[in-house]
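RETRY 2/3 - previous attempt timed out on the joint model. Re-submitting the same 356-residue input unchanged.
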Amino acid sequence: MIRRAASEEIVDLAGLTRELHALRDEAVAAARSAASTSELEELEVTLLGKKGRLTVVLRGIGALPAEDRPRVGAIANEVQAAMRAAFADGAATLRARELGERLGAEAVDVTTPARPVRRGTLHPVVETANRIAAIFGQFGFQVYEGPEVEDDTTNFRMLNIPPDHPARDLWDTLYVDVPDHLLRTHTSPGQIRVMQSARPPIRALLPGRCFRYEAVDASHASEFFQVEGLMIDQGTTLGDLKGLLDQFAQAMYGAGRRTRFRPGYYPFTEPSVAFDVECLVCGGSGCPACSRTGWMTILGAGMVHPVVLQYGGIDPERYQGFAFGMGVERIANLRYGVGDLRLYMENDLRFLEQFR
Ligand code: DAH
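RETRY 2/3 succeeded.
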């Protein structure tokens, strides 16, 4: 039956119905046969999309005479629902299949050898400082830390080094702002900070980075590490200091090492000494490494000057103490046979990887 519609288009009710059913069958078949979710999505757009073929057919309904519209409308709704359901089913089936394929393809082979883990190591200077701390730790020394940017008062004055004192020439100083703040030239100001924060008996170890204005070469660096030690108690003597340092030298360099005290000078200790260990290279007979003396100086030490105790708030009539300070690189050099300080700062893995 052919009717003339208001729009002058010829619309055939039976034909429209057939077309709708054909579209539905096509959608059902397509949803079954699509090879992938993306192919299915494309088909869904061409059939069901806003500008798809169903929309085109539905537009024809408006051209039908009013009495026919409800019937075709109902068929159209059914067809649309059937098409949506077909696509939804198809999509679910495809997703499941694709997931299965992916899981199959990406399966983890647990027998594959693992990639090697690149393990880092402690820097030889840090490792040496740790070793020093572990040895003194056995004698009850606790680790403290002081600031790298110090004030002039703590770095010098309270260590009995007033402004313009010639001893300042021993420390070529890098100032942060003149004259009050500087990069600490040694770890000795840590002594003052410990005395101000702890009461005797004190056994403190202060490892840390120090800075000096140096012309850099194999044996001079503008940045280096020291470990400072401080012990304060009643009746502490130079004999205690010597006994402790002897024990340290044996632990660090092996039992039976000969050691000696030589007189020295530091403004913050009185008396002051240099502590030597028999040359680790030649064993004492004399060689270039020990300037043919048979001895190597590994640290400076002495009895804490009464003025320094007073600056630290400790009564020198009641308490005595000793202090020592050593350069960590120097000790690491002797342990590992390193001949050039600059190697420690260059971060060259060929050097660093040797300390595993
Ligand atoms: N602070 C000294 C320096 O940098 C080392 C030192 C010497 C530390 C004697 C001490 C000491 O505690 O008693 O050269």
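The mean pLDDT is 91. Closing ticket.
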